[in-house]
Amino acid sequence: DPVTYTVLLSKDDASFTDPIRKEELPYSSCLLTAMDGLEDLTIYYWKVEAIDQFGAVTESSETRNFYTDNENGPEISIVYAFVLDELGNVLSSAVVDPGSTQANSTGMATLILTSGIHTITANVQGFQPESQTVECMGGEYHLHFMFPAMATVEGDTDGDADVDGADLVNLSAEIDLCTDDCSSDFDGDGDVDQNDLDTFSAAFGL
Fold first, then answer.
1. Cβ–Cβ < 8 Å for 78, 99
2. Which of 2, 15, 87, 93 could make an S-S bridge to 158, C-beta 3.0–4.6 Å?
């Protein structure tokens, strides 16, 4: 199900009596600045809530904290790089530079960058790298990389047009467990079961 996140920040108070709230975050990361009410030389406690499309809330199992100093370092930006093919399929095998960051299961790589002009490059096996330039000045930036559609290969879970060990790892993690948006659901019946294992085994040569 689609999930959004709320980050709760509490100044010097682990009971979160009157927290700062960063709500409706679409990703599991966010950037905090003085604009959000942060003060120097202060301890902040924080935790996260995940909210699904029906409003059900799951709270993080632990509370963490950080301390703000009074030294202003370089301004930080978050760049979200999305790597898809022209049909909208996720290319989770993509690696995004700088930092050789692996895209996640939604095709997104998260980069933490200092202010300045940066060249962001998406690398997908079998294709020439694609690059975009972004001028980071603090805050969040979204980049979208679009690659040609690959031929569908049965048994391929990560979109790299090859059935290999990475696909075996994905299948092992999902079999008999995944029931929604499963990369190893080759027969399209909504779960990962023995039929999908047989399909993979034939493609992998097992």
1. no
2. 93
